[in-house]
Amino acid sequence: MSEPLPLSADAADAVDRYLVDTLVGEDPALAAAVDAQRAAAMPAIEVAPTGGKLLHLLARAIGARRVLEIGTLGGYSTIWLARALPDGGRVVTIEAEPAHAAVARASIDRAGVGEKVEIRVGRGADVLPTLEDAEPFDLVFIDADKESNSIYLDWAARLGRPGTLIVVDNVVRSGRVADPADDSAQVAGVRAGLAMLRDDPRFDATALQTLDAKGWDGIALAVLV
């Protein structure tokens, strides 16, 4: 039995490229969405290709018809989610920045899933209450300002149903979540969200560390009870 390779940034990058090449592949519409995001000087914080494929497979696995995404950015993850939905399915995605929403709209339409996606422009805390009368969502993806994670989780519970799957991105923050000396607002928001997943009886949750094209981070997964 051969010895495992030592963990290094180069080795992690090589594994990520191998997994993307083997299981995700090239996709012109997704590549164009990333290119449009870069051209608009938007932050390069979209999910990694393997993370996008994971969201897609999770939505398919639970038979999701209605998806709520908090944090559209350039629409990369939105496209992955919309592609997982059947005819008549709907992604409602919330983006605080109008300019970002415009870039996302163009990319989503170019990818051929525009009829499945509704973009709501505004801060999540302001937009979420307007969805209270909608049908419950089957999957909620939270990938916005980390300081508001507990607010978003509360609304995910209100807007979901028993069995709704909730995915929270960026919960490890390159290990900073476990560093007691780090009291930054983003890390504090992540910790508050994880504590809520632990203590609030509406959730049953776990979390996983990830190491991919976006570096060392992680996701939390929860099911509404």
Automatic annotation (TrEMBL):
Keywords: Methyltransferase, S-adenosyl-L-methionine, Transferase. It comes from the Bacteria. GO terms for molecular function: O-methyltransferase activity; S-adenosylmethionine-dependent methyltransferase activity. The keyword Kinase does not apply. PROSITE patterns: SAM_OMT_I. The keyword Zinc-finger does not apply. GO terms for biological process: methylation. InterPro entries: Cation-dep_OMT, SAM-dependent_MTases_sf, SAM_O-MeTrfase. This is Methyltransferase. It comes from Microbacterium aurum.
